[in-house]
Fold this protein.
Amino acid sequence: MADGKARRKITAEELGKHNTDADAWMACHGLVLDLTKEFLDEHPGGPDVVTALAGKDGTQDFEDISHSDSAREWANKLIIGYMAGAAEEEEEELKTKRIPKHSEAAKASGAGGLGAFVPAVVVLALAAAAYFFLKKA
């Protein structure tokens, strides 16, 4: 948690107000991060890629980059609250939740495995069958 303070519920409206380089918050996995000047100055991709998401939910962008577990630990230090709108039992979890590790996030999103490979093999097999069938005719 940022500064060791207890997390609080933050509305989308309040999140949206923190959308400048000098005052940047971002939601990620239901948590709200305060993107401090120190963080922005040290971010490997530069401050602009992060501040473009200030005041918004950047979960998808965060996961699209496939941040390392050390980057996720760094992000955990910036958590100041959680997004309003969660069910009451989820809200209790958000008070202590952390940014998921890379492997956990990949499992949750269905990344990895053979998902995109199987349809390609099926199409290739059908094409080969059609080629041989039509060649005989």
Strands lie at 8-10, 24-28, 31-35, 79-83. The helical segments are 12-17, 37-42, 47-51, 59-64, 69-76, 88-94, 102-109, 117-136. The two ends are 70 Å apart (CA to CA).
